[in-house]
Batch of 2 targets.
Target 1
Amino acid sequence: MPRRRLLPLLLATIAPPLVAAQREAPDLIVLNATIYTLDSALPRAQALAVKDGRFILVGSNAQVDAIAGPQTERLEAGGRVIIPGMIDAHAHLPNLGRILRTVDLRGTTSYEEVIALVKRRSEELMTKTWIVGRGWDQNDWDSREFPTHQALSAAVPRNPVYLERVDGHAALANAMALQLAGVDRRTEDPDGGKIIRDADGNPTGTLIDEARLLVASAIPPVSKRQLEAQIQAGMREANRWGLTGIHDAGVGADTVELYEELAARGQLTLRFYVMVEAGSPGLLELLGHGPRIAMGDHMVWTRAVKVSADGAMGSRGAALLRDYHDDPGNRGLMLADYDSVLTIARLALENGFQLNVHAIGDRANRSVLDAYQEALSEYPGRDHRFRIEHAQLLAPDDIPRFAQLGVIPSMQGSHQTSDMYWVADRLGRPRLEGAYAWRSLRETGVIIPNGSDFPVEAVNPLISFHAFVTRQDADGWPEGGWFPEQRLDREDALESITVWPAYAAFMENEVGSISVGKLADFVVLDRDIMTVPPEEILGTRVLRTVVGGRSVYLAQ
Ligand SMILES: [Zn+2]
């Protein structure tokens, strides 16, 4: 059939829903807002309308008001700022959930307080479910002695309890935990560990170093129900900070299945772009089936593989081209070498998947770029959007290679502001020119999707927005910014948490901007982050988070 015939036919199938949607009244309209749409066709607007989870009109108050019907929900924004839903391009949601579900004992000032917190958690749980806590420190208590389990065991008799001390080198277990782990007066101290005992030789519940594992190893792996609860807790926290989507940087195929299951039940309040961990079982099967797009009514996308090429700078595990400045002879560690990255890159290209490799040191970054270059030369013309996660330290020669290869540097503003206090010790001053080199990269033409790497860093995406703009911590240190020539402007910083992550996930037609036809994800803020003085950015409060037209968070 000649092309000319097809076109009207295509238009006929595409056009009606849009027209129909506009003829029908919207489900929701928002009026009197200051909207940064991030859509170049109409950068600023006053009002928007949502129908069936998508924006159907963005424009003036009069235009939007004119299409409202009697059933339409009306939201009066009172001049507040609205931006597209924020997307964290590198985060770990199940880990965040696990921490949120762990009893947080930091800052407790007595054993009684610790017991009360654990008791409260036990009231939400079924009998025999393990309770894990973290953060107690007997040096903050009056007695300053290691606790003994009796008071805890009396208060929480029906759940096994395992509480790590703040430094992770000691733990307190209650009677049921000791019993389930088979730890009693006959248990010998393991190598490198000590069971604290009373005068009769009975364990007091406090376990030092390797002795902790006697009980810790008895804690069953998280059940599906627990993982679900962790995901729910993580999503609530993410929504609270204005996130409508995240790129989950490395989960197993089983977690993908669970995300899709929750999505199918309508229980997700956050859109997931999933990177599947390279070592996880089920990866090959998943790759073989091809990308999984917009599953569960546009909540879960799975089309990326995550590999770690090296470690981190803080522990001197990042692979460097030259020695650590503060540890001569040490150049860090490669976890996935050139050949492994090349192999998995071919596999990804073959199956239509993106590859996202964690590389922090300059040696790891070079090795990954080399492997990408080789693989991409074998599959020319692919829309691959391969990424390097972190890209923290780059040799000057490697900076232009991202743009040349079409590789996306996925970076985290908050890593720069967390690391700047000590990273000069690790690297020495001259190498810092290529550290967190946002501006240098940007000038080569690449986009830099921004992320938090939570729970390594805090969830609030505006911390990384602020870092991109200032290269300063929350206290405004250092004055003028750390290597301020690498700052980005606010327009770029706003794109780094909206449209750039959308593009880096092949989702630019669905999310990232407030555009007619896109999914209705947006956030109402209490101030204008594009115009307030930089030191006021971090005080911003999210007033409302909307995913697909549904409010998933509302400030009290
Ligand atoms: Zn990470």
Target 2
Amino acid sequence: MNNNKNRIAIVGAGIAGIALAILATKQGYQVSLYERDSKVSSMGAGVTLWPNAIFVLQQMGLDKEVKRIGGIPSYMRQFDQYGIQQGELDIEEVNTLSGFPSVTILRRDLMNILARALNDLGVEIHFNCSMTAEDIGKLKQEFHLVVGADGRMNSVVRQTLYPEKVQPCYQGFINIIGISQLEEDVIDNAIHDFRGLGERFGIVPIKAGLCFWAGGWSTHIDKERPLSAWYDEMHQRFMNWPDPVQNVLKFYEKSSLNRIFVHDLDPLPYWHQDNVLIIGDAAHPPLPTSGQGACQALEDVWHLALNLEKKDELDNVLTDFYQQRIVKTSAAQTAGRQLAQRIFTDSSEPQSSVAGISAKQLSEFWMQGLELK
Ligand SMILES: Cc1cc2nc3c(=O)[nH]c(=O)nc-3n(C[C@H](O)[C@H](O)[C@H](O)COP(=O)(O)OP(=O)(O)OC[C@H]3O[C@@H](n4cnc5c(N)ncnc54)[C@H](O)[C@@H]3O)c2cc1C
């Protein structure tokens, strides 16, 4: 271990990496942030930031900007593939119970807000730095703490903690995601969740007709198949689905389309060794059906920053962090898997999950552990 108590290295300038860089810099740490890409990534169409994420963004002083740019949905409505409503969640009620709003936002907008805040603190991101296991070994010697915020699929930092190779697990379905600009008022201020047997199409409004969406269905992985074939299949599968689906498929930005074979990971028994730690998707990637990946990444950052403030022995800080976070992140992973299984694997009639969870239950789960000390 080294003596430089004030230096933190972060690998990966995604949501978790940049957010941690902001909070740690504000605490007086000297932060070095390394990103393999040449710019801040806007991969992924959009995210819904539930009240737990907005709580953290408020602590970072970024909630107002996020609300200004994003949308505030009032309801989440679930329909069958014929457009018949099956259930409804009153998001405003969840917000009131939680004390924070829920915000929908394009990923590129969220990343810009985070990157600007970091830049305002005078911290530069080291781009084009694809870190290797050897690099992590060097960082370990130079820094007080090395944090892997390097994402779900190929986290190098996770590989250094688990040399026996922990592999993300394919969960049997694909998502095609995109962004569409619709004519105003075509879709009201509700998240729309259409479900068929083994198929799902979700549409998330932001504002003024701007929305992001994901079409999913169960399938085997085939990375050789051209993207255009997947996109054609999507059009065919959903061609007779209700009007909002037809609308987003008519008006999407071509460059926003992406195909994702959806993976997650079983909960891990530890997230750190010596002074190397993993957070966010590198540590506990949930399925998108949990709606909580980015939210949990932000919660990690808030808890870790609070623990670092205690100036305790680093091993105690990181052990406490794991113990504070493992139950909630595992619950989000489990919830994501259960919902995915109901939609994409079970051959029974599609079920209503929205109707099965009360606003109170959701708000209690999301706000758990987020008390101001
Ligand atoms: C279709 C879909 C929809 C989703 N919807 C939601 C939602 O509505 N709400 C929600 O909360 N979450 C959602 N999520 C999950 C959310 O996107 C992730 O949980 C979140 O991005 C995790 O943030 P992160 O910072 O941990 O990882 P990432 O955002 O993946 O960032 C990792 C960063 O590390 C960099 N990196 C990787 N390897 C290296 C290396 N070797 N060296 C340097 N840099 C490296 C990458 O380039 C990247 O910039 C969704 C995910 C998907 C796939």
